[in-house]
Amino acid sequence: MTIDATDRRIIAATQAGLPLVSEPYARIAAELGLTEAALCDRLRAMQDSGVIRRIAVAPNHYKLGMTANGMSVWDVADDRVAELGQMVGNLDGVTHCYERPRALPDWPYNLFAMLHGGSREDVEAQRVGIAALLGDACRGHDILYSTRILKKTGLRLRSQKG
Amino acid sequence: MTLDETDCRILNHLQDGFPIAPHPYRMVAEELGLAESDLLDRLARMKESRVITRFGPFFDAAAIGGAFCLCAMAVPEDRFETVMTKVNAHPEVAHNYERTHRLNMWFVLATETREEIDQVAEAIELETGLKVLCFPKLQEFFIGFRVAA
C-alpha cells in the first residue's frame, strides 16, 4: 500500500469530492497535468490496494431525519466476531461497525455498532433487534447516548510526505 | 429539501460504489433508468442542501499516513469541565463527545503515526491523572446506510 507523490496529489485533488460534470476524471486529470487514462489507472490501483476504500456518497443522517444515535457495544466471542460483525454491519440504521479491543476489567465489549434512528425509541428498537439476532453469542451489551458534543473538527489529511 | 423516490434510489445506489470510467455518471444513470443530466442535477441539489455530506473517494487513513484511535475516560462529574478543556487543547483530539456511561468522555485522536497516539494518550493521563482507555479499530465491517425509498 505504498503511494507516491503523484498519488498524494490525486488524494489532495479529490478529497473534497468528485466534480459533478459529465467527465469528472478528465477534469481532475487536466488540473493535475495527467492523462485521464493515467489518472484512472492510479485510482484503480489505489482501490485494489485498499488506499481507496470505496468511491461513494456519504449521506447526512441528520438531514435525512435520523436525529437520534447511540453507540451500541457488544461482548461477543472472539472467534465469531467477524461473522457477527458483518451481520450487524449490514442492518439498516447501522452506520459504522467495528471490532475493537476490550479493556478489562473496565470494558468487556469488543463489537461497536453506531445506531441511527428518527427517535430514541427507534434506536432502542434496533438495539433489541440486534440482541435477538446475536442471541447466545452475546454475553452482554450496553448503549451509550451522546449528551453533548465537546469538540468537533474535520479529519484532515495531515501529512504531505512522500 | 424533500427527497423523492428517485433521490433515495440514487443515495442508496451510490453508497455501494462508483465506476472509474470516462463517463461514470452516464453509466450510473443508465443503471437507474435516468438521464445523465437528471442524475447530475439531483446530485448537485442534494449536495447544495447538504443531504450529501461528501461524494468521492474515501481514503484509508492508515494508508495515506495517519492513525486514528477512539479513546475513553471516566471523568468525575465535578472535574468534567476542567478535564474537557485539557483534553480539547490537544490539536490531535478531532472529536469529543460526552456519553451516558461511567466512561463518560469519548474522543478520537488523529495523528500521523501510531506512536503519536500513545504519546498523546499518555500526555492526557499525566495532565489529568485519569486513565485513558484506547480502542483502536481492529476490523471494520461494511458501513452502509439505507434510505427508505
From TrEMBL, chain A:
SUPFAM superfamilies: Winged helix' DNA-binding domain. Keywords: Lyase. Residues 63-151 form the Siroheme decarboxylase AsnC-like ligand binding domain. Its EC number is 4.1.1.111. It is an enzyme of class 4 (lyase). InterPro entries: AsnC_trans_reg2, HTH-Siroheme_Decarb, NirdL-like_HTH, Tscrpt_reg_AsnC-like, WH_DNA-bd_sf. The keyword Transmembrane helix does not apply. It catalyses: siroheme + 2 H(+) = 12,18-didecarboxysiroheme + 2 CO2. Residues 7-53 form the Siroheme decarboxylase NirL-like HTH domain. Pathway: Porphyrin-containing compound metabolism. Pfam families: AsnC_trans_reg2 (PF17805), NirdL-like_HTH (PF22451). Belongs to the Ahb/Nir family. This is siroheme decarboxylase. It comes from Sedimentitalea xiamensis.
TrEMBL record, chain B:
Its EC number is 4.1.1.111. It catalyses: siroheme + 2 H(+) = 12,18-didecarboxysiroheme + 2 CO2. Pfam families: AsnC_trans_reg2, NirdL-like_HTH. Residues 69-141 form the Siroheme decarboxylase AsnC-like ligand binding domain. The keyword Glycosyltransferase does not apply. The keyword Ribosomal protein does not apply. Keywords: Lyase. Residues 7-52 form the Siroheme decarboxylase NirL-like HTH domain. SUPFAM superfamilies: Winged helix' DNA-binding domain (SSF46785). Pathway: Porphyrin-containing compound metabolism. Coiled coil: none annotated. Belongs to the Ahb/Nir family. This is siroheme decarboxylase. The lineage of its organism: Bacteria, Pseudomonadati, Pseudomonadota, Alphaproteobacteria, Rhodobacterales.
